[in-house]
Amino acid sequence: DGTAAEALRRASDESKHVFILFFGVEDEQTRAAQKSLERAVRSMGRAAEWIAVDIASGGEAAIVDKYKLRSTPMPIVLAFAPNGAVTGGFRGADINEEKLKSAIASRGMQECMKALQDGKIVFVCCQGKKTQFNKEAMEGVDDFKADARYAAHTAIVKVDPSDSEEKKLLSQLTMDQKTKFATTALLAPPNVMLGVTTGPTSKSSFLK
Description:
The protein is an alpha/beta fold. The chain contains 8 helices and 8 strands, in the order αβαβαββααβαβαββα. The longest helix is centred in the N-terminal third of the chain and has 15 residues, at 28-42. It is elongated and about 60 Å long.
């Protein structure tokens, strides 16, 4: 219950994903989508919750305008991570458990998506206790972030290759979970891979 903003705050406080069903009219299509959503979210246990939002409600204008939902066919479901990143969007007729579960993002994925959605350049630093050149791999990243021209527009996301929850993210970045060396991926908005560096890095190579 409550507004979308309240649901997002609650999800952040409780480290949950929240699925918001936006609708224009309470017709059969909306009711069917609501049933499917309720059933799918129930199967996720404590990982997620859901809420239905009428886009005509004055109290929801901010989120409706932010995601340009007035011109979007209804009903539609947007999935939000605890940090506010949008991790998926689904038409009402397409809602099912498998699709919604694909929108549950790992910590690393959440951080990457949020930074990209905020218009930032993202360094994904894949390193752990067993990888070599960790310090050297961070040198170029830290130098880039320390530059006043780029600091506010740069995010650093550290991911341990041994973390099984980050398998999907590492796969998407073509990073090897069994890597012996620190690996750094550079991403740019909206979701562009600019390159992957194995081992030591330098600010100059990133600028190129």
